[in-house]
Structures are given as C-alpha cells and as structure tokens.
Amino acid sequence: RYWRDWSSDVCSSDLNLPRADAEKQQERSNEIVVAVTAQGQYQINRRALSFTSMAALVDEMRRAGEGMREPVVLINADNNATHQAVVRLMDAARQAGYGQVAFAVEQGGAQ
Fold first, then answer.
1. In CA terms, which of 7, 39, 54, 89 is 20 to 30 Å from 79?
2. What 3-state class would DSSP assign to 56?
3. What percent of the chain has pLDDT above 90?
4. Parallel, antiparallel, or unpaired: how do β-strands 42-44 and 47-49 relate?
C-alpha cells in the first residue's frame, strides 16, 4: 500500500483530503482514481458520475481499469465524506476484482 500526495493535483476542487506524514508518490499508469466529496458525489478518473446502484458503480470501475495491468484503486475521500460513501467505494473495488486499494492524503502531518 502507498500514500499519494494529491495537494498539487486537480482531481476535484471540492476535496479536503486528510493529512498524513508520507512520502510523495508519483502518479502511476495503473491507477484508477476514485473520489468522493463531502456531499457524496463520486468521480472516477476525474469524470463525475451519479450513484444509481452498486452494480453501476462496479461496472464503471471495471471500465476504468480495462487494459490496465494490476490496477490500483486510489481513493480520494474528502475529510468530511461519510464512512458509508468510502466503504461503498472499497466494496465496489473488491466486486470489480481489484485487490489493491490505497488512500490519497495531503502531506504535512496528521491533523
């Protein structure tokens, strides 16, 4: 597992990521970047989508990972996103067959 510093990337201007002491990792070509805002809105690879069902979310994740070798799901969860919204992303990744999940944080120490 690894941590990725997204403080300088533009994934969603609405995200307030948790902070942690971690070394910055470079973006990898096998990442499926999923995000959830404080309002519960989802994005996959910077494309907004409406949550209609778990099956639809799983299908979107599978599509995002097509052609990737050993995809890693990188979750960008706003500090104020609900626990349920984050668990839903983790479960969708598992159902899509992705065994590697990581969380994005901002560098600078835990708050």
1. 54
2. helix
3. 64
4. antiparallel
